Amino acid sequence: MRKKIYTFFLILCTITFLFCAWKLGQYLFAYHQADQEYQEIRKVRNAGNDRKEIDFDGLRKMNSDTIGWIYMEGTEIDYPIVISHDNNEYLSRTFQGTSNRSGAIFMDKNCDKEFASDNSVIYGHHMRDGSMFADLLKFREQSFINEENDVILYTPERTIPLKVIASYAAKGSTKIPIMFSDEGEKEDYIAEILKKSDVSAGVSEADRKKIGKLYTFITCSYEEEDNRTFVYAVESDDIS
C-alpha cells in the first residue's frame, strides 16, 4: 500500500512539474516573440538612422491604428502608440496583431488621437521581463527623477518633449479625467496629483498655472491587489 501511495504521489509531482514547465515555456516564448517583434518595428522607426526620424508611413502600413511613438530616457520604453475603438483590443494583441500577453502601448479610446485632449491617457502592460511599461515604476523613485525625467513623444506632425511632474500608485478604479470643464478644475487636479506624488519634480506655483496639456501613462503595480502606477508628464515648455 505504501508503495502504491508513493508511486501515486511521484506521478502527481511529475505531472505537476511538467505542467509548470510547460506554462513557464509558454510565458518565455511569449516574451521572446513580443521582444523580437518590437525589435523589428524599431528598425522601421530608425529608417532614417535618427531617433527624430520616425517612419510613420511605414508604421501605418504595418498598423493603421498608429498615432505616435513614445521614448522615455533611462528606460527600456521605446514603442509605437496605437488607438482603437475598444480599450481591450491591445491588452492581448501586439502592434502587428499577434495574440500575445505583452499587448501594445495604446491610448484611451476616449482621447483625441492627435493628442489634443486636456489629458492624453496611455496604457501599457507591466511585463515581468521588464518590457512594455514595466519601467514606469522607475519614475516613482526620487533618485531616478533627479537624473531622468525626460520623455519624448513623437507624432506624425511634431516631436513633443515632456517632463515628468508626478507619479504614484493607486487603485485601478481611480478616475482619470480626459477633459476639464475649466482651468480651475485642471489646476485643482494638478495640485491633487502633485500632493499624491511619490516624488518631487520641483514644480512651482507659477509652473502649475502655465501647464497646458497633461499626459498620463498607466501600468499595473503589484504592491497591492488591483494597483496601478500613474506617471504624469507635461510639455517641457510649460515648466521651468
TrEMBL record:
Tell me which Pfam families the record gives.
Sortase
Catalytic residues per the record? H125, C220
InterPro entries referenced in this protein's UniProt entry, alphabetically: Sortase (IPR005754), Sortase_dom-sf (IPR023365), SrtB (IPR009835)
Q: Which GO terms describe its molecular function?
A: hydrolase activity
The protein's matches in Gene3D superfamilies, at most eight in alphabetical order, are given as:
Sortase (2.40.260.10)
Protein EC: 3.4.22.71
Q: What is this protein called?
A: Class B sortase
Q: Which NCBIfam families match?
A: sortase_srtB
What domain of life does the UniProt record list for this protein's source?
Answer: Bacteria
The coding gene here is srtB
Q: Enumerate the UniProt keywords alphabetically.
A: Hydrolase
> What species was this sequence derived from?
Candidatus Anaerostipes excrementavium
